[in-house]
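FYI - complex with histidyl-adenosine monophosphate, inputs then prediction.
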Amino acid sequence: MARKKQFKTITGMADIMPTDYKIWKEVEEVITAIANFYDFARISTPILEDEDLFVKGTGQSTEVIEKQMFSFRTKGKEKVVLRPEFTPSIIRAYIENGLESRQKPVKLWTLGPLFRYEKPQKGRYRQFHQFDFEIIGDAASATDALLIQLLLNILERLGLKNWRLEVNSIGCQECRPHYLKQLKKYYNERKKHLCADCKKRLEKNPLRVLDCKEEKCQRVKKTAPQIVNSLCQECYKHFHSLLEFLDAMGISYILNPYLVRGLDYYEKTVFEIMPEEENNRQGTLIGGGRYDKLIEQLGGKPTPAVGAAGGMERIIEIIKEENLHPNIQRRVFESFENPPQIFLVQLGDLAKKKILKLIEEFKKNGIKVAQNIGKDNLKSQLQLASKMKVKYSLILGQREVLEDTIIVRDMENSIQEVLPQKGIIKEIKKRIKELK
Ligand code: HAM
């Protein structure tokens, strides 16, 4: 008699069983709470998309497009793919649904399954899940810093302490071609020491040679030209100022001059967060960067943007292996769902640095605050604060930073007081309590 067939999951795909669901739920709760605190709106896009969206968006000569797409034709002969990443889908949805006319920045987040035809191994699957954050319509380096702060907040709440943040700038369409010329020359002179794939990459997409994990290519990379030395003035200023913000926020980072990331749309800032130990097999936990040309490339108006995504499976594996306990504070999390009562207004870089720190302190005290850290203009920030109907705006300019004071503006009657910065959280907490 023929034996009954035992069905199994498809290679590289896994069931999430009830025993694991508790952790998945807690991780989702933390991500949702942090997204709410920073005022991101949730979006969900279809799993199937037009193949061209990723060929154009992610980039024709990337590993994801060249080798990893689950693509097929529908009965109606449309060429579709199981989405390999979120960013092009979110930008498509942003353009298609008229979000371009909204007040900038538009902050969107999502969570769900993605598909890449990779060689399965620990931390690398063919179906995996990401949480993804995108800030659309803001070119400021302070926004990149805010996004990094948000992501580290998620890891901290989940109990992950041993991470390392690597940052780099890969320049823009102005300065990168000069660098690519130097890079090509350098590698062409050493071509015989490269792996077969890199020999091909060198022609099609030379930046990707820097990303190769083969030992022989890593050796050649050690003395390769660094893009930081070729940045144009604008990109240099942007990068320098991001590093200053990170310093001011007390966020430690490693400047990795060879960090390039495997997707074609990035320019200026790129970053990755990985487990601290070099040999940890989970690989990168979170990756992201700025993509100021993608929206235009996908048919929208020229709009700068920055975003990042984290791998759920990799993070959950660490939580399980290290028996970590996510810090869930349901009442605080619930309060982050409400509109904020406070808007933090800043004028100038010194004030931005202070505000970035204040955001953290308010969050630790369970108080939701709004801000528009990329803006420099007082009027537009106050207009946004009134639109959001907050009770108070806290205004920090150059003078207040130097004098350790802060202006508290009652938005209903426009009465302003100057208060010491010290104790401001306690004072605001008291006032908000009185409102209830
Ligand atoms: P990515 O670096 O391709 O970036 O993926 C982000 C994260 O997804 C990785 O750091 C990793 O944790 C997880 N991940 C990727 N592939 C796999 C896999 N095969 N198995 C398990 N986990 C995986 C992006 O996808 C960009 N869209 C991020 C972004 C958003 N950039 C701007 N906005």
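The mean pLDDT is 95. The first strand starts at residue 41 and ends at 42.
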